[in-house]
């Protein structure tokens, strides 16, 4: 009997459940590049190149380990989707059983579930145990809770993994050192140079393919400097632990002009495709702490992002899909401005965040949340369009992680499934946490008028427009009191400035 083991582009781990118990002599491993995955949203060129190159390298790795691999390159067959590709391979190799690991996204899992009917062979779908918490564990944790807060989930995950634990107690006596991780950028911060490697012939072929077939997609393809193999990924992780982790915590929320990466790990895409394990990254950070090479606030912060936020976000996604994607609490309908694709706006913070996204298929968390997400919220951009944008522009974006971050965290479009209030803010937050405002055409200290920072009046306008939904929220009480103390002239100026700005946005 020939068994087919099917591996998706974000399942590049040799310990994948679909590969457990493989009979290397008789089983076939299938991986395929398909047109539909690259175009159901028009992914950033660099993201496609990263995934195809990582997939091709992973296939070679499996071959060198003795697996029999069938790899379908896009330029050889042009299959529209996974089902079409599978059908051909099943017929050609007289496959009797198909084993796959459950897809990370609802859309693809639904496809997988249809295969046993479509192919008339035995189909076994296995859980993805690269995540540290199962979908069922999360639902059980969430069941009956009035509020779903990452912090409490995270504490359970610390106990479960034993990371930074002294018996039942958290290392250092506190669970969370976030308050120490909000330092504004100081002058003269020095950021370490990233490792790089020469592009090999596999990546060169992929770059040619992407240049030829996806030329009209968003983003810059070159320079292409991503790790694409397990060896490069572990090298990158070790580099981060040795060179950037120490300062990661303190400056986690800071933004600096023309510094795309700062002390961030840049590991999300490598973890999401499976070249690195989530636990492996956390254990490496914990070891640095234990050996005195990184402070607790940095290591705890890094571990919290991974075993806390990353796992929590995935739990929310599976608990709330499929309705979650249509969430639109504020009934926001505005189209994305054209400059979301170019970065060409006089708002320097947005220009920086979007231009860097275009160059690198990457922006760090605060740029995504407090610059682009915050603007999208205040300007009332349509959540569906914002989601699609975030899903296609970032190299680490898969729906399971992108959607709750956009719908729940950045836009509060889910009405507060896990956030206690919207992450809405005026320009003063961006000014405090970055050096962007000093280089902007707008003035962050001006509250009204054509020269005023648009975040300033849009923030109050957002509160006015959504009063009915937000004023009941206790955590918004102070802001509504401030709004109510404003003079009528001030309120008129906020309304007029917002109207003028949003009209120009619509016309742009
Ligand atoms: P670091 O700052 O070095 O953090 C370390 C790791 O923690 C990351 O590699 C990542 O694995 C994890 N992490 C941190 N925050 C989160 C979070 N909120 N959710 C899940 N994991 C987290 N992350 C994605 O992986 N894919 C996405 O599509 C994505 N979309 C986002 C959209 C918005 C609007 C926001 C606000 C956040 C989004 N994030 C997403 C989370 C976060 O911004 C990225 O994981 C992070 O910027 C990746 O860069 P890094 O590896 O340098 O992270
Ligand atoms: C993102 C992506 C792209 C662009 N192309 C492919 C592909 O051709 N083949 C593949 O197996 N995976 C690809 N991926 C990643 C998938 O979209 C991802 O594995 C699923 O969406 C997970 O549900
Ligand atoms: Fe952004 Fe406003 Fe600062 Fe300009 S002034 S960089 S628009 S926050």
UniProtKB/TrEMBL annotation:
<feature type="compositionally biased region" description="Basic and acidic residues">
    <location>
        <begin position="176"/>
        <end position="191"/>
    </location>
</feature>
<keyword id="KW-0456">Lyase</keyword>
<dbReference type="GO" id="GO:0016829">
    <property type="term" value="F:lyase activity"/>
</dbReference>
<dbReference type="InterPro" id="IPR014729">
    <property type="entry name" value="Rossmann-like_a/b/a_fold"/>
</dbReference>
<dbReference type="InterPro" id="IPR036134">
    <property type="entry name" value="Crypto/Photolyase_FAD-like_sf"/>
</dbReference>
<dbReference type="InterPro" id="IPR052551">
    <property type="entry name" value="UV-DNA_repair_photolyase"/>
</dbReference>
<protein>
    <submittedName>
        <fullName>Deoxyribodipyrimidine photolyase</fullName>
    </submittedName>
</protein>
<feature type="region of interest" description="Disordered">
    <location>
        <begin position="169"/>
        <end position="191"/>
    </location>
</feature>
<dbReference type="Pfam" id="PF04244">
    <property type="entry name" value="DPRP"/>
</dbReference>
<dbReference type="InterPro" id="IPR007357">
    <property type="entry name" value="PhrB-like"/>
</dbReference>
């Amino acid at each position: 009997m020939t068994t087919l083991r099917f591996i998706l582009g974000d399942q590049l781990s040799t310990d994948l459940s679909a590969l457990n118990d493989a009979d290397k002599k008789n089983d076939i491993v299938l991986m395929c590049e398909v047109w539909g995955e690259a175009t159901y949203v028009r992914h950033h060129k660099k993201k496609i190149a990263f995934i195809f190159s990582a997939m091709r390298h992973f296939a070679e790795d499996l071959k060198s380990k003795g697996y029999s691999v069938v790899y379908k390159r896009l330029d050889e067959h042009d299959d529209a989707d996974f089902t079409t590709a599978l059908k051909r391979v099943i017929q050609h190799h007289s496959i009797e059983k198909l084993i796959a690991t459950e897809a990370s996204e609802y859309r693809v899992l639904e496809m997988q579930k249809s295969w046993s009917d479509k192919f008339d062979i035995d189909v076994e779908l296995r859980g993805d145990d690269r995540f540290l918490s199962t979908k069922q564990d999360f639902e059980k944790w969430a069941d009956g809770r009035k509020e779903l807060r990452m912090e409490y989930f995270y504490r359970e995950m610390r106990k479960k993994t034993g990371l930074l634990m002294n018996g039942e107690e958290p290392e250092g006596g506190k669970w969370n050192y976030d308050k120490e991780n909000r330092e504004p950028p100081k002058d003269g911060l020095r950021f370490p140079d990233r490792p790089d490697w020469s592009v090999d012939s596999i990546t060169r072929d992929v770059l040619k393919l992407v240049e030829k077939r996806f030329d009209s997609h968003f983003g810059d393809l070159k320079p292409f400097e991503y790790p694409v193999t397990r060896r490069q990924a572990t090298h990158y992780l070790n580099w981060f632990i040795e060179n950037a982790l120490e300062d990661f915590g303190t400056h986690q929320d800071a933004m600096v002009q023309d510094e795309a990466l700062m002390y961030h790990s840049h590991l999300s895409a490598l973890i999401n495709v499976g070249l690195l394990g989530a636990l492996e990254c956390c254990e490496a950070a914990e070891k640095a702490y234990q050996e005195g090479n990184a402070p607790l606030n940095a290591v705890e912060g890094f571990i919290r992002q991974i075993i806390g936020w990353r796992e929590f976000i995935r739990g929310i996604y599976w608990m709330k899909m499929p309705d979650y994607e249509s969430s639109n609490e504020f009934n926001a309908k505005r189209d994305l401005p054209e400059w979301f694709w170019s970065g060409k706006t006089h708002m320097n913070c947005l220009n920086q965040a979007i231009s860097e996204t275009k160059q690198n298929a990457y922006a760090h968390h605060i740029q995504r949340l407090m610059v682009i997400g915050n603007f999208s919220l205040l300007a009332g951009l349509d959540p569906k369009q914002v989601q699609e944008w975030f899903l296609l522009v970032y190299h680490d974006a898969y729906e399971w992680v992108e959607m709750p971050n956009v719908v729940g965290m950045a836009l509060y479009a889910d009405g507060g499934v896990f956030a206690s209030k919207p992450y809405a803010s005026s320009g003063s937050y961006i000014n405090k946490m970055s050096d962007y405002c000093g280089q902007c055409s707008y003035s962050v200290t001006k509250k009204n008028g054509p020269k005023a920072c648009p975040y300033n009046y849009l923030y109050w306008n957002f509160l006015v427009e959504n009063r009915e939904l937000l004023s009941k929220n206790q955590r918004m009480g102070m802001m509504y009191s401030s709004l109510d103390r404003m003079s009528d002239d001030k309120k008129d100026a906020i309304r007029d400035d917002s109207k003028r700005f949003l009209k120009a946005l619509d016309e742009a």
